[in-house]
Amino acid sequence: MSIEIKLFRPNRIYFPAEPLEGKIILKSPSSISHYGIRLTLDGSVNRQVRGGSAGAIEALYGAVKPIRIVNKSVEIRPAGKIGSGTTEIPFSVILRQQGDDRFYETFHGANISIQYLVTVDVMRGYLYKSLSATMEFIIDSDKANLFEPPVPPEMVIFYITQDTQRHPLLPELRSGGFRVTGKVSSQCSLLDPISGELIVEASAVPIHSIDLQLHRVESILVGEKIVTESSLIQTTQIADGDVCRRVTIPIYVILPRLLTCPTVLAGPFSIEFKISIVITFESELVKLHPKSDPKTPRLWLAMETIPLELIRTK
Fold it and tell me: Record's PANTHER family (predicted)?
């Protein structure tokens, strides 16, 4: 016998004020008895502290107690029998009840995960193993709580030179110099791309590539200490090779849905984002370290990091 959950929305995206609707599909070669079919909704903020980002005491905790957002169980069918063949059982369950806490948007991070699951259990008693199926669905912010789109989006002007870098550079970069200017989004709707432009005004050393890195900054309250860790989400190449000087290069980066969410500043945890404009200059060292840590400054790299506020708009 097999059991499957099928939601009526193919994208599985729901708002907290909406009902979760779908059907349970049961396939059995023969009729079976059961002691009830139950559907459970579970939503939680799961946090973990890894040893590399915490002290010895905090590392012992490992996983921090989850923050429960929603947990409810309803009986879809009472005890009875399921006939042979394919049986489809529709369901509709309200997600948010009056007085429920805030529903955070679905997010899959390195140390923080906000996840919503629907589980169906067919109870078969002590002599038989219960049948179960689980599916993740995605929560977006309620439309009533959304911001109006910023018109125009908030932008920040940046410039990158040898004097703005706090780490050692190649001698030829320090002596010859370089200057890259531009503007990029500092506040961005999740429905819109990170946009902007940059101009390479001068560079004594040929440029290998220009990339935009998107980082998440996850903070977790452990006891009286806040443990913060930054991790790379994605890297998008803006330019390849030694680009022409004084030519405007557009910035257009699509945000990944499950790996981003509106910026969250809650008490027990926070989820923030930042972007880094990274310029890689031509050097033999680049070939020797093709897979170096993107967060570690290198002699052949110049970068500028800018905080990014993500919001959900109508």
Answer: VACUOLAR PROTEIN SORTING 26 RELATED (PTHR12233)
